Amino acid sequence: MTSTNRRPKRNNKRERNPRLDNLNSQIKESKFHKYIAHDIEGYRRHVANGGVQIYSEKELQDLQAAGLSDRLPPRATKYYMELAAKSHAITNLIKARPEEMDDLSGEADPSNQLKYSPVPGLLHKYELILLYVVRTCSSWCRYCYRSDFLTSKTDKDIGSISQIVNYVKDYNAKVKEGMTIEDVDRAFIEGDVKKFPIREALLSGGDPMVLSNRNLFGYLDGLAGAGIRTIRIGTKELSFYPMRFDDNFFDMIDLFHELHPNVNLAFMTHFSHADEILQRDKNKEYVRTKGYHYTRIPQVEEAVGRLRSRNYITLENQAPIIDSVNDNSQDLRRLHVELKRLGINNHYYFQCREIEGHKTFAVPVEKAWRIHTESQHGLSGIEKSRFVMSTEFGKLEVVSVMDGFDVTALAPDLPEEALKLANAIFKDGIIIFKAHRTGESSTSQGQIVIAKRNPEALWISGYEDRILYDGRKDGDARFSPMGTFLKSVFAPLTESDTMEKILQNV
Ligand code: SF4
């Protein structure tokens, strides 16, 4: 199903709202001087004006020759480029590579998101809703999983808050007819409803923190008024331009809290590497301070400290594991430790999505799992995170990878047919995924997917032809891949063979 043909058009007219106009008059805006170099000419101007150089002229010419800007123009703040000058990881996060254009295979609309968009600018796949509120970020990560939206290559639009509020109200009214928003919330907690009410919303884009304070307030206030209990703000601005979190911003969210004291804000930060938190000296060494501590970048420390000082705000970090950015366990472990020390919880680490051009950035799934697993050694329970893939089906946690082994060497006396079967399953090893987060109509929550290993796979698509048990399906269908697999091992078996009969015959 594609919903694009059936979705109502976005309402672009700004409706008069005297209450909001009055509140807006209390909100102040700041003038930021965050010079942003956009595209190749922007970099040239940045360097001509004395800015740090992260590309040679030859590299810029190579990018132009490769037509790189057609995929995603390079873009970064002066602040972030200055961090990049002392860090390979940060350089690699924003520095375009000509080879990005070598293989543009991948999904134009990653994970088929438009399928879950009942209203323009809104995704409703899980129990929460996601809103596209802005089409840019202060800098652009080369691996951006929203690049289709940033560059307007798909039919995704910016959400109109009035249309989204109406959607939330209508949806929640249908969860249990005749109930107020408060009653629906209580009924859900007590397990008294079949459908999940929409209690949470994620502001995304792009980066909501590049919006003006008034614009951001309009989304927060509208969602709170619709009965949303927790509003997430997905942002990398603490890395790209932490000075955005200034007095006027905090006055705005304090006003929001005064008006909606029961609504929590969750900042979903996107720190990819400890170099976005810690200071490096001119020799590119971390600056040590008292004892084992390192000196933090003061603007990051201040912004996070001010967020944490508000009891209605929580902070969770999530980031993908990316080639040449954070694809080693020591860097990931350091990031976990520094985030937790800063007061930010480690939430998800992601497999790089199968976006167009992903092959330049993606680390194979099994390698990324190993890097993440090694990074968890020695971390305490509250410092740890999960490694997941955000697929069309839902969030699949990569639970474990088992090395292959030769059953013949282990148990040479087994009957030949048993050895044939056991080796067919175990010789190359096994990977296990778990359905960590699914849509409300799915029966798969907590189910596992077992597949034979594929060390080259960059996404779940690399395993679809080798799955043995598929907990993403319903009921007996979960076993059907095993039947197909067994038939491939014992070719003479016929369609009428049941799994029980096949196993009895082995
Ligand atoms: S912060 Fe997120 S949306 Fe912005 S460029 Fe990076 S990955 Fe894309």
Quick recap:
The protein contains 19 helices and 14 strands. Mean pLDDT is 91; it is low at 1-7. The chain has 506 residues and is α/β, with parallel strands linked by helices.
Structural overview:
This protein has 506 residues and is α/β, with parallel strands linked by helices. The chain has 19 helices and 14 strands. The protein has helices at residues 18-24, 39-48, 57-66, 68-71, 78-84, 88-94, 147-150, 161-175, 181-189, 213-225, 237-240, 247-259, 298-308, 329-342, 365-376, 407-410, 416-426, 480-489, 499-505, and strands spanning 36-38, 75-77, 122-124, 128-132, 200-204, 230-235, 264-269, 313-321, 345-351, 386-390, 394-402, 430-438, 448-452, 467-470. The strands form 2 sheets. The chain has a 12-stranded mixed β-sheet. The chain has a two-stranded antiparallel sheet with strand order 1-2. The chain starts with 17 loop residues before the first helix and ends with a helix. The relative contact order is 0.09. It binds iron/sulfur cluster (SF4). The site of iron/sulfur cluster has 10 residues, from loops. Iron/sulfur cluster is lined by residues 137, 140-141, 144-146, 206-207, 236, 270.
